[in-house]
Amino acid sequence: MAIIELHGVTKQFGTQIVLRDITLDLHANQTVGLIGANGAGKTTLFRLIAGELAPDLGNIVRGRGLQIGYLTQEPDVSLEKTVREEVGSTFAPLMKLEDKLHAAADEIAAKADDPQLPELMAAYERLNARFITSGGHTFETRLHEILGGLGFSPADYEAPMGRLSGGEKCRAALAKLLLTDSTFLLLDEPTNHLDIDAVGWLEKFLAAHRGGAVVVSHDRYLLDRLCDRIVELEFGGVTNYPGNYSNYASVKQVNLLTEQRQYQKDKEFIEKERAFIAKHLAGQRTKEAQGRRVRLERRLAAGEFVTETTKNRRSAKIQFDQREADATTILRCDELAKTFDDNALFSDLTFQVFAGDRFGITGPNGVGKTTLLRILLDEHEADEGTFEWGPKLRISHYAQEPAALDPVRTVVEEIRTVCEAFTEHDARSYLARFLFHGDDVFKKLGSLSGGEQSRVRLASLMLQQPDVLVLDEPTNHLDIPTCEVLEEALLEFTGTVLCVSHDRYFLDRIMNRLLVMRKEKCQVYAGNYSYYIAETEKRRRKESASPTRGTKTAKKKNRKTERTQAAETETPQSKTAQYDHLSADDLEEMVIEREVTLADLQKQFADPAVLRDPDALSELKEKVDYATGDLAVVEAAWHERVDLM
């Protein structure tokens, strides 16, 4: 049963309609990922659900007694309080109750021989019972657990809020929200300013939350791990996709391909009809032509044809033009060590980076990841150890600091500075690939948002034709479409990538080797982020004293893993070869049948009985995953056949 319902909600500001006729159900025990381009209206939708804004049309129904916790990107915190006081203010009623308990205890001690002592004792017991049932003996533990989980050390507790950085204030606001025990959570970019350990902790915390949540995030790994449903906000409306982000991306692509195919069919039909009408309207078959024209116009007016396709988001098309590296070993580091102000960041750090590697560096804040990059770029000196780059390498560096850009220079001037051979027309054409259109190219760099500055720096980087890309948190400030474009470019890049990142999805998709830096140990893993997690879990299981007994759920997962591994051993050619004997028309019919099957399965996610039954939900997700994969194979076979025609 939905605990929040939006019915025909419309919201506009001035003449701009931001949300149009939104109908949406939000359920308890379900985490929804809300995605959409910047400016699509995600924050407006959150403010409507939270009650901060009223809809211009439609209505919003919230469950009785529902407590909504809303985390904004710009938190409202008291700068005069300490971290502990501000975050602990959630427990203000409990602290007042504790003060009353102390006062009652003092009064009992002062009136030990008073005849009213039994009444005072009874009053104290009532207060104590309220204190216990409200969590009075556990709130300090909870406070420390959440502050610690979000990266605050005990030394930070007494720091004044006014002295914290913007990121630390956001983390404090998140800690405060998580302590409110809100029934339903609205989280706007909760992983901003969190390191990889804090994000992992938050993910586990939210997975255990049973009240329901909507999450806006660019962290696709989080959306994959937490979300039961993805809601895309686009062109003022919402579209629901069952499952996690990866399932959304797959279904979205299928829908776009299906729409494109239908568009081509309808376009050909309309052109043929109009050609017939034009040819015979004044001839012997005039009546037939007139009848066809009436029917065609009626069907067009009724919207029976796909007359235009969904416009894909304008996305930067990034391509690298690089030279081949001369050496097999690009970088060799031996026993590097660095200490700042008696704080040992890392020591005895030894590793190699080979030609063509996509070498990721990750770990919690404060272990020296960016410092390591600066040492390798000769911006800092190591206290101990050595490093050596291969000969004749052209290295391009993408740093975190936007100060690297000249604030008075325009976007187009910046690009023409990097590539002097560019005319203004060349530069504008190039910048269009990075979402800068029209007068955008004449904006001053100092007036750009963080995301726009990141796009300018990426555009500049691509013109340098590097052998080695050194990237420091490249996906910060990028929306999901731009992240995906960058990832596609890096996958095509034949040079070497050395990259610091907290973005687990990015690390999973791009990296083939990973250096995990921690205070206690730094270690290189011969795989991506998922490989690192699997190896960590394997080591923990070996170290565990009590072996885990197989359960029904575990057996299901094992069977699923076996099927997945078997599928991964098949090449794309071997998967489509089974359909070699079929014609393009046969394959197209199979595609349509599988699309219908997938759509029917997806509709079952709306069944409350399924949502309440974890086993049924898991089984349905497996069926959807299989149907999605089966459709992709048949679709690929159809494309191969059409390409040969």
Fold and architecture overview:
The chain is of the alpha/beta class and 645 residues long. The chain folds into four domains: 1-67 and 182-243, Rossmann fold, CATH 3.40.50.300; 249-301; 329-542, Rossmann fold, CATH 3.40.50; 552-644. 46% of the residues lie in helices and 18% in strands. The strands form four sheets. It has a six-stranded mixed β-sheet with strand order 5-6-7-3-8-9, sandwiched between helices. β8 (229-234) and β9 (237-242) form a beta hairpin. The longest helix has 36 residues, at 245-280. It starts with a strand and ends with a helix. The model is unreliable at 548-557 and 559-573 (pLDDT under 50).
State the name of the first-level CATH class of the largest domain.
Answer: Alpha Beta
The CATH superfamily of the largest domain turns out to be P-loop containing nucleotide triphosphate hydrolases
Q: Over all CA atoms, what is the radius of gyration?
A: 30 Å
Coarse shape: globular
The unreliable regions are 548-557, 559-573
- First-residue to last-residue Cα separation: 51 Å
Strand tally? 18
What's the pLDDT, averaged over the residues? 82
